[in-house]
Amino acid sequence: MSGYQSAEASIDVVTGILTVQSHVVYALIDLDSTLSYVTPYVAMEFRIEPEQLHEPFSVSTQVDKSIMAARVYRDCVVMVRGRDTIPDLIELRMVDFDVIMGMDWLYSWFAKLDCQTRTMGFEFPNDPVVE
After folding, report:
1. Does 1 have pLDDT greater than 50?
2. Of 3 and 112, the one with more pLDDT
């Protein structure tokens, strides 16, 4: 069993379906991840040209492997209950999830995670909370 499959079974993570660049994707909301990622298999459908990172970096996985991240897709549209959010997604070769949404995205869009109910609320400025 891979690390992400183990993570999926854990009560400490949130998984779900999101719409990214008009494509329905399987997502992991990962509070331990500083950044947000997309698999190249999904990203090739985005019709966005990736940008090379100035400094590629290594990403550690749950199964003690490291994967190099070298490209980013800027300003991707991630739909949350009818509202557009615009994160950058770093390309990362993974198989268990289409996207991993990290703290950069959660912070930027005023997200609050309720671990007890396993729900997430987005507090967009001047709007009611979106769960």
Report:
1. no
2. 112
Positive or negative torsion for Cα 117, 31, 103, 47: negative
Measured CA distances, 7 to 1, 3, 51, 68, 100 (Å)? 10, 6, 29, 21, 12
How many angstroms separate the first and last alpha carbons of the chain?
A: 31
CB of 61 within 8 A of CB of 5? no
- Taking the C-alpha atoms of residue 111 and residue 50, their distance in angstroms, rounded to an integer, is 26
For 105, the 3-state DSSP assignment is helix
Distance CA 105, CA 91 (A): 15
d(CA 9, CA 53): 32
* pLDDT tens by residue, 19-73: 999 999 999 988 888 999 999 999 999 989 999 999 999 988 776 688 899 999 9
Q: What sign does the CA torsion over 25, 13, 38, 65 have? A: negative
Report in angstroms the alpha-carbon separations of 109 from 13, 18, 28, 57, 124.
Answer: 18, 15, 16, 25, 7
